[in-house]
């Protein structure tokens, strides 16, 4: 009885978040990211486990308690400069923070839910399908972002990257690359049987994986359905950009490669010099394949069109591929701040 009478009240903290200009209340066991999302702040995030760095944040004032070691995804220069991960930080005092991952000057596009219908499903590779959705109204997003798809017929939701570039005035028909996952409820339902005309809810956009404006070369590295956001980026920037590009794409066998009618228009539309290199890791030695073999990361050091240290890198696909690529890029002199990636983790592997 006395314990209940004299129990200390829960001590909350106030966190002021730039550039949103919002102040949110954070409870003792709540991360900065959780509190911001609960308050309706469009805070960038993806994994919420400290693996992707999407919620990278500058601590301006106050003290935090880290839940994990930030050194897993942040370099020492960033950590010494006060960079934290909002999804892994508890507030020990009132705080003032700034979201670092929004420093490209582009305004945040608020996520919303729009109803649409499936208009086509076509095979792209052995297990990747192009799913086109006609929306009841337009949607705006940045190439590289993703949306959550919910199918009323199966009552499940999954995340997929936009595979088409946005139009200046928004677009009513969008495309996603859906990888067929064994026993995957949503991917199996979408790609097995006639789904034309079926309703689908699109919620987004989410994520901060997008091209940064700069006058430096670009290295794209992707695997599997990681092609989708890179494709959207190439479509969006190809008309106006003359930045040189090297695009390394990894697959297991020839059955995992996109057809030339997908790749060729992307390469030809880009104003700058381009090189697209497909690389196969498990292609039978006695096949007719005469292209590159090995892991996609094996070919980073062979880039000769420009200095790797002077470029930006955009990586999308399996976590193992991205984790292997980052130290090779930084070892070649590329700064960590010039490496952008979207890990298709288990919770988002259908993208």
What would you say this structure looks like, in words?
With 351 residues, this protein is α/β, with parallel strands linked by helices. The protein is built from seven helices and 19 strands. The chain has helices at 2-5, 32-38, 76-80, 185-191, 227-237, 260-269, 319-331, and strands at 13-18, 22-26, 56-61, 64-66, 83-85, 89-91, 95-99, 112-123, 128-139, 146-151, 156-161, 171-179, 199-206, 218-223, 245-251, 274-280, 292-293, 312-317, 339-343. The chain has a six-stranded antiparallel sheet. It has a six-stranded parallel sheet with strand order 17-16-15-14-18-19, sandwiched between helices. Strand 14 (218-223), helix 5 and strand 15 (245-251) form a beta-alpha-beta unit. The protein is globular, with a radius of gyration of 22 Å. Mean pLDDT is 87; it is low at 346-351.
The percent range for strand residues is 25-35%
Supply the CATH class of the largest domain.
Alpha Beta
CATH-scheme architecture of the largest domain: 3-Layer(aba) Sandwich
CATH superfamily of the largest domain: Nucleotide-binding domain of ferredoxin-NADP reductase (FNR) module
Q: If you consult CATH, what is the topology of the largest domain?
A: Rossmann fold
What does the overall shape look like?
globular
Q: What would the average pLDDT be, to the nearest integer?
A: 87
| Total number of helices | 7
Keywords:
351 residues; alpha/beta; Ubiquitin-like (UB roll); six-stranded antiparallel beta sheet; 7 helices; 16% helix; disordered C terminus
């Amino acid at each position: 009885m006395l314990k209940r009478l004299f129990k200390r009240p829960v001590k909350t903290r106030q966190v002021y978040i730039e550039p949103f200009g919002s102040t949110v209340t954070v409870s003792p066991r709540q991360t900065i990211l959780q509190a911001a999302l609960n308050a309706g702040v469009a805070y960038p995030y993806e994994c919420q486990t400290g693996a992707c760095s999407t919620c990278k944040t500058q601590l301006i004032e106050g003290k935090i308690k880290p839940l994990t070691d930030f050194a897993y995804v942040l370099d020492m220069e960033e950590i010494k400069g006060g960079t934290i991960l909002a999804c892994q930080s508890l507030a020990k005092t009132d705080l003032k923070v700034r979201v670092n991952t929004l420093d490209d000057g582009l305004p945040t596009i608020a996520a919303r839910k729009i109803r649409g219908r499936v208009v086509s499903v076509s095979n792209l590779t052995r297990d990747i399908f192009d799913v086109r959705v006609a929306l009841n109204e337009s949607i705006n997003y940045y190439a590289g972002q993703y949306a959550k798809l919910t199918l009323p017929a199966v009552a499940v939701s999954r995340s997929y990257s936009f595979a088409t570039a946005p139009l200046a005035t928004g677009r009513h028909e969008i495309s996603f690359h859906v990888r067929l996952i064994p026993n995957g409820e949503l991917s199996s339902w979408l790609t097995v049987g006639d789904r034309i005309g079926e309703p689908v809810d699109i919620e987004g956009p989410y994520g901060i994986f997008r091209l940064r404006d700069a006058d430096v070369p670009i290295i794209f590295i992707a695997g599997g359905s990681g092609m989708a956001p890179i494709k959207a980026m190439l479509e969006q920037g190809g008309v106006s950009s003359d930045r040189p590009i090297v695009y390394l794409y990894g697959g297991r066998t020839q059955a995992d490669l996109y057809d030339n009618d997908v790749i060729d228009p992307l390469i030809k539309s880009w104003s700058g010099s381009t090189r697209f290199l497909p690389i196969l890791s498990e292609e039978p030695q006695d096949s007719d394949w005469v292209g590159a073999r090995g892991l996609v990361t094996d070919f980073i050091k062979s880039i000769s069109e420009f200095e790797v240290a002077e470029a930006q890198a955009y990586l999308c696909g399996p976590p193992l591929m991205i984790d292997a690529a980052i130290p090779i890029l930084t070892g070649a002199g590329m700064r960590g701040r010039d490496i952008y990636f979207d890990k298709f983790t288990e919770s988002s592997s259908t993208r």
